[in-house]
Amino acid sequence: MQGLLAFKRYYDFSGRSSRAEYWQFMAIVVGAYILSAILGGMSEVTPLPMLTVLVMIGTIVPTYAATIRRLHDRDITGWAVGVIWILNGISYTLADAVVRSAGNPLLLWLSKVAAGILVLYSLALLYPLVMPGDAKANNYGPPPASAGETLEVHPEVNNPASPSTAEDRLSQIERLAKLHHDGILTDAEFEQQKAALLQ
To answer: Which of 120, 118, 91 is nearest to 107 (CA)?
Structure first.
């Protein structure tokens, strides 16, 4: 299951993540939140049970990392996620100012505009998360290979051509090592392909 790769790449904010990896990971996270809310006994007294807080703490970093890598797959900077925080801060500040000013109409209008912009931006950011990634290398590296895509996207992994130079061999071994590290290749597949390259 590719969704588990996001946990292996817990603090990895570089590179790219496939749609399958990202959305499977998000399904795991949402499932963990739902399960923690059920098991934690959410009530009016404790609206956020301790179990849910622990799940939140455990998944916040890999969630941001996976989202940033997913945006990288569409050649979009990860700073696009930071814009949400800025818009959220502006919206919250204006909403707080409305409460403090006893409902000032101008502040109320600005607060609604800021909240609307936040919602629209968030929806716009959802688009690249659901679309296929760039098929070729982009500013953030080569396309990610899922277990099912290995043959089509990286045919050299399953049938390495005999490289003409030592540098070609080294680059192919490095690529195999990356696929192995990302969990695409098993230990046996990695050793077999490496041995074929070194012959």
So the answer is: 91
